[in-house]
Fold this protein.
Amino acid sequence: MLLLLLFVSIGAFLLVSLSPVDPLQANVGQTALGALSQEQVIKLETYWGVNEPPLERYLAWVGDFLRGDMGVSLLYRQSVSSVIVQKLLNSLLLMIFAWTISGGLGFVLGIMSGMNRGRMIDKIIKGYALLTASTPAFWLALIFLLLFSVWLKLFPIGLSVPMGMDAAAVGISDRLWHAALPALTLSVTGISNIILHTREKMIDVMESEYVLFAVARGERKWEIFKNHGFRNVLLPAITLQFASVSEIFGGSILVEQVFSYPGLGQAAVTAGLGGDIPLLLGIAVISAAIVFAGNFIADILYGVIDPRMRKGVRQ
């Protein structure tokens, strides 16, 4: 995981170094830069290390990063770490809500569809999954915003807190209420993969010889699922769901933009468009760590759910 984070940090730093963003102009502004004399520009370039080799600049940045100093955000005028913590808390609320709903509901619908293959309920669930799998997240977010917020007025139009209210005075119920519609949008778009994958695995289990033998013994559907289906479909579902953290994070960038939700995704877009290099690098590394942590937790859960995997490691 640490090696992967190192590669991500190198890749992000190289891309930023090759981008056309002028670090001096991004720091002092184009108007102020034009008013400076050549000697002042040279002093600023020396101060910011603009002409230093990329390797030295990377080593200096990663050294500060390891000491907990990610630099200062040029747009927010705060330390990058405090901006990321503030935005990450908003995004985590959104992503955990969406990840839980899409995973739990998708798993149940996938099992129902797989155990009733060819019937009407299977066709409805499969059609819904295929339809949502081909629907862009930003388009669905615009439809939900127009339908539930503008026309029906069931949810707030945007932001994470009521407009005009101090964020410190906002209660948890208001925050959940503002996060509900963006989270619902992410859940709807993220549920299709888990439905289709669980459905296929459940069909394989239902067509296996041991299930045919269980049917011949007179076991009912619930008993077949409990005794033979649950564990066999749970492991692949967990793998897919924890791997979908990256998809949910990517989808949250577009959804947060549509709903003006001040999360990490919106901060990444703002940093990219505004040339805020320290914030952009910090978000790249932290978001990669979140994705790697999801896959790592999935590996740990394998041994908890299926003890045979732990025995295989010992052998």
In short: The CA atoms of residues 150 and 157 lie 7 Å apart.
